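Researcher: Predict the fold of AmpG permease.
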Amino acid sequence: MMIALLGAYIAARALIAFNIVNRSMVNNTYVDPVKDFFNRYGMSVAVLLLAVIGLYRVSDIVLGVMANIFYQDMGFTKVEIATISKTFGLFMTLAGGFLGGILAIRVGVFRVLFLGALLSALTNLLFIVLANVGHDITWLYVTIAMDNLSAGIATTAFIAFLSSLTNIQFTAVQYAIFSSLMTLLPKIFGGYSGTLVEQFGYSEFFVITTLIGIPVLWLVYKVKPYID
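Model: Structure tokens for AmpG permease follow.
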């Protein structure tokens, strides 16, 4: 995450050095929003917040890379996958988002953010059951329902969390940076999902995706004073 920010900073300085862009424009558009974030929270807290942003969805995304391949290996047809995973799954994600919004209003963003991280990790264990029962439509519905419902809850809380970190003066740029960091590390880790499945098998892979979600709970707890 820090490497990504450093890379962006170096790129901005290079553009200025070669007179490709105006210095004041780069400062106002790229440098000032980053400086503002670190000035408001301080280096240690800012790094902690960035760690939460970069790792919050790691459990979901690493598993998601292999999801469709897993369904096909379990014997589900493309029609079944499309109907249950995409159509029904979308409905459950929207339901989770709606539920997450209500919960955030009633109990606060932190509790829902923590709940979303917990459910995102635990629902991965349902895939172990599916891996053992094989081609079972009922279990596919249950797995997709719980996985997408938890994803909707987590996403709603996460958006509220990101929004709370932005300065109204730099909202667009800061939110864009946070959104990019949100998927950067998970997608890098997700690139090794296939290797993990080949090395350990599906059940062990799903256990791994659950375990990598546990440190996120600790990170979310550590940033509690800066949420809500």
